[in-house]
Amino acid sequence: LGALGGGPPGRAPEPGGTPGGTPEPGGIRAGVPCRPLRTAAPLSSDFFRELGQTLERMAQTLRDQLPASGRGERGWVPPGTHPDPRPPEEADVVVVGGGVVGWSVAYWLKVLEGRRRRHGMRVLVVERDPMYSRASTVLSAGGIRQQFSLRENIQMSRFSASFLRDINVCAVVWAGVIWAIQPHSLWSPVSSQEYLGVPNEPPINIQFQPSGYLFLASPQNAAALEATVQFQRDEGAQVTLLSPTQLKEKFPWINTEGVAVASYGLEDEGWFDPWTLLNAFRRKATSLGVQSCSGEVRAPPECPWPPGTPDLSVPSQVHMPDSLEYQPVACAIVVNAAGAWAGKLLEAEGLPRGLCRPLLPIQPRKRYVFTWHCPNGPGLSCPFLVDTSGAYFRRDGSAGNYLGGMSPPKEEEPDPSDLSVDHDYFQEQVWPRLARRVPAFESLRVRGSWAGYYDYNTFDQNGVLGPHPRLENLFSAAGFSGHGLQHAPAAGRAVAELVIKGRYETLDLQRLGWDRLVDGEPLQEHSVI
């Protein structure tokens, strides 16, 4: 990088030559007056910082793909996949789904088990898409917010924000005390909770961008937003209300027409890189002894359940990808963290029909994310804005790039069978709403797009956590309807506490269990984007 500026960073070359008076080609020497050359504008420091972050992500991805040392293999190994493609024949817990929620559950199981077991809990994570090409985690917009209407969601967001703040803490035991190690700091004793730092590994940089969510409300919804903000404050969230005048003063680029009031998060909100967090959970869990494999979990053809009575073990088969081969895995507990396909998992052939009562109402819902460039856009002051129309956008880096989208009406849900993008949806639905709210977006250039899945809970748009009412050793951790990434640290710990201790200890998430499905009483979340 120093060569780009003619010398080391922070030291500019002298006019007409290189530092120190070294002759330049053509006979020009330092100190000899000459007409200055016309050069392009210097690159900003933000460019070099983003370039360095991009190169580091590429290097980490390559390191993740290297085969295990000492095996003499040179083939490519998908990140998080053990070089041996076959899963073990036995495990204590099988986690179905290797997204961020599944890996969080596996991580917390190993953290909370402590040293009570001589050989440790055997945890297996099974992911059918090792390339994560269709995974909800890596195809999300990467946001985290405190502004929810349900107490449990606010509490999980606050827990996750605290967890991400200390993500690089790792712990060692010395003299009978657990000590925390943080980069560039002294050791300090901590509680038994560990985080995602791994000794002798590079620190984790999730590229967190602190910027509040900005919810805009129309006159019809103003009272509801004000009441929700008061509830959020009572739960400890730092949120402020802005009048249209205050909104215009803080964000001059906004058109406030049709806005009666806005809510703005003051802390613990923003966005980060989902892929980095997923790999951090995977790397830490693997270092704690969690195993993983590629495959699809299915029930065996011969169902061992006696009629009307649950078995004490959960039969499962892991089918190898692109193969007829399968491996039976005997286990005591299964955690259904299959995301958008969590509902279909319980409808598989070979499982008792009783597992479908009550129905796990989780379906894949396709959502588009579009990226665009607008040099005269909001700039660095851009929050994660959610318009009165439902359209949203946020800044994507610091070079005039943005990303956003909008959930369609129920009657216009796109076909979820593939991840193709309807580009007309942006032109006809999203762009007009964005341009009306931000006049600068009238002249933007679309850069790209992708589609991902919500694990959409059609019942009340909230996660379903805890044991199945008809099979107590089958646990669910799915149905977050678009906020699973930000709630993964809290949800993973909650499920692990149920598995190991039989109760919630950190957060009381009892209301997110199956009982509400059985009783037909939804816990409606009104702040789903």
UniProtKB/TrEMBL annotation:
> Which segments constitute the FAD dependent oxidoreductase domain?
92-498
Recite the UniProt keywords alphabetically: Oxidoreductase
Concerning InterPro entries, the annotation shows: FAD-dep_OxRdtase, FAD/NAD-bd_sf
Q: Which Pfam families match?
A: DAO (PF01266)
Q: Which GO molecular function terms does the record list?
A: oxidoreductase activity
Organism domain of life? Eukaryota
Give GO BP annotations, semicolon-separated: mitochondrial respiratory chain complex I assembly
Query: For this UniProt entry, what's an example GO CC term?
Result: mitochondrion
Query: Which stretches does the entry tag as region Disordered?
Result: 1-34, 65-88
Q: Cross-referenced PANTHER family, in alphabetical order? A: FAD-DEPENDENT OXIDOREDUCTASE DOMAIN-CONTAINING PROTEIN 1, SARCOSINE DEHYDROGENASE-RELATED
Which function does this protein serve? Answer: Required for the assembly of the mitochondrial membrane respiratory chain NADH dehydrogenase (Complex I). Involved in mid-late stages of complex I assembly.
What name appears for this protein in its UniProt entry? FAD-dependent oxidoreductase domain-containing protein 1
- Organism listed in the record: Tychaedon coryphoeus (Karoo scrub-robin)
